[in-house]
Amino acid sequence: MSKVLMKGCEAIAEAAIKAGGRGYFCYPITPQTEVAEYLARRMPEVGGVFLQAESEVAASNMIFGAASAGVRVFTTSSSPGISLMQEAMSYITAAELPAVFVNIVRNGPGLGGILPSQGDYFQATRGGGHGDYRMLVLAPSSIQEAVELTMLAFEKADEYRNPVMVLGDGLIGQMMEPVDFSAVPAPNPPDKSSWAVTGAKGRRPHIIKTLYLDPDRSEALNQKLTAKYEMMKQREVRYEAYNMDSGRPLILVAFGTTARVCKTAVDDLKAEGIEVGLFRPISLYPFPMQEIRTLAKKKSVKHFLTVELNTGQMLEDVELAVQGNKPVSFYGRQGGNVPSPSEIVEQCRKYLQ
Amino acid sequence: MAQTTIFRRPESLTDNITHYCPGCTHGVIHRLVAESLDELGLRERAVGVAPVGCAVLAYNYFNCDFLEAAHGRAPAFATGLKRVNPNLIVFTYQGDGDLASIGMAETIHSANRGEKITVIFVNNAIYGMTGGQMAPTTLPHQITTTCPFGRNTDEVGFPVRMVELLSSLKTPGYMVRVGVHTPLHIIEAKKAVRKAFQYQAEGRCYSLVEFLSTCPTNWGKTPWEATEWVEEAMAPYYPLGVFKTPEEDPAVGMV
Questions:
Q1: What is the CATH number for A183?
Q2: E-strand spans in chain B?
């Protein structure tokens, strides 16, 4: 299949269909409502379920119910709506159900606005809801990558029996780019008959629950979940190193849309004969802690500059990774403003003296 | 002389001993649901959704697949499940705090969409599990731990009549309120539960059976006094009866 020009939201919707997503429960919110509009027409064509719920609270709890049946399920929303879904995410994680959540982040806090932001980094990578849990968080920086990571999200959700979040932003959702679906693998859902609720015919009842009043059993669940997250740290770290063939005096650290802009800044500086590296985490949880730590210990690396569409959230993970070995600076824009490449070039010059 | 079994535990119940208080009618209601599933041959297709409240551990007592919902979200769980697998027989089992307070939005919208599920609504006019707080169904002047001087309707309004409220919607098919405080009421209640599951098995409609139930512990009454209180205090405010059937829609003909 040749490339097709698609809007980010619609490409994510089609990727979910191609990944075997057959249950979609949603509530409209800008800048990602196009996902729902696309799926309202598309889902019936593949015999799946599309349902517009009364709220994000209801939509995300419908996801719990549908995931329990063993069907690949997903929902999409944007920041204020994702806040309302935190309840269900906590329960879904505790119940060890697979589900995919896509957050097309908009600027906050509060109602904020409808423009691109990365202000939900903490919420996504620290669990967000109550209790001690994590989700695998994948951050695309192009529409093609949004397609690939959305499809990967379904595989990983099934593999770990844990929710996976695709963390985009208003630009990823609204931008149009050519995408190619031919490279993406066919869905490969595992057998879920050992736990799905399908009716207790010829077997003992399956019970999917999250209440553990016995402290030892509750602790055992926490430790089981922790073991999953440790396995994710071993196997699911994803990142891109750009213009880093050898140690660079300055390394930019950015994800998603911001990394796109940083890439242009790196190219612009290169044209001037100035070499700057870009480290782009693709998995935000697990964070590429060890990879950044190794860089920080290189003699040739003098400085890190973290660039984000917030007031400094991934910055804390970068600082944890660098462990004080090198200075870490921050440049951020908020409110839906996206820095231009020249703005980032200017910032770089500060640390290239 | 040959012995014949004339009364036994339904297959849809486990042999676990329930945690419910003496005189509470949850056990009777569990049995009516289980008998109906048995008689209609639905146990092997059934999935229950437990609430947060006294019945949170219902899956320990029912011998069928079960989910345990977040507080008030049982209708959303049931919606997701039934939509992706319409062959399942999905029922929620919810108390008044779960269904009529925190889950009011999910209740109204699942009913209004006409989800093909069966809702077992246990109204005992109080929050049982957390120890006797005011519910949306607490009667005027009724004393609870959070209205120690009695429910003041000037401040918190009158109790919600859920069956009447949902019957004002056009979509929901079967709306009925029953009691389980006398053997005669139990017989009538059984017919309603069976009918509700029958409608779902036929793929017909959303149905809700509201039970007037007892909470002797938090009402501060003996089990016997509690059954009398259902008759004397609850039933006058919450009239028993069939409010809506899929065959007869009171809204038909209204302009």
A1: 3.40.50.970
A2: 46-50, 65-68, 89-95, 118-123, 174-179, 207-212, 241-244
